[in-house]
Amino acid sequence: MHIHANSSISWIVYLTTPHESARTAFRKPSGGGEFVFKNDRPSGHPNSETWVLPDAAAGTLVLYPGFLEHRVPPNEGQQRVTMALNAIPDRLDSLGYYIHFQ
C-alpha cells in the first residue's frame, strides 16, 4: 500500500484492459468518514477494509485523492499498461491564507 504525498488528485488511465488479478485495490481510511465506498459486486461487502476496482477496460480513467492508500496486486495475466499522474498544487489558498510551494 502507498499514497501519493502532496498530491491533491491522483489518477490512473488504463491503456490496456487489466487481468482481474491486477486490479487496483484501495484501503478505506482508518477512523475517517470522508469517503463512502460503494460496492455493487454481489460477493463484496460495502464496509470492507479494502475495495477492489471493478472491471476496468482500456481507456478507463480513475480519479482519487492522493492520500488514499492503494496498491496493485501481482499481475497474473497479460502485460498491464497504465499511466499514473498526480496533480500537485504550487499554491494552497484558504480564506485568504495561503502557502506557496517552490
Radius of gyration: 16 Å
Oligomer state of the chains in this structure? single chain
Main structural class: mainly beta
Counting DSSP E segments of at least 2 residues, the number of strands comes to 8
**Regions with pLDDT < 50 over 5+ consecutive residues?**
none
Strand order of the largest sheet: 4-1-6
**Tally of separate helices:** 0
Taken in chain order, the helices and strands follow as EEEEEEEE
- Terminal CA distance: 28 Å
Morphology call? elongated
Mean pLDDT across every amino acid position: 80
The number of domains: 1
Largest sheet: 3 strands, antiparallel
Beta-strand residue fraction: 25-35%
User: Which percent bin holds the helix content?
Assistant: under 10%
Summarize the structure.
This protein has 102 residues and is mainly beta. It is built from no helices and 8 strands.
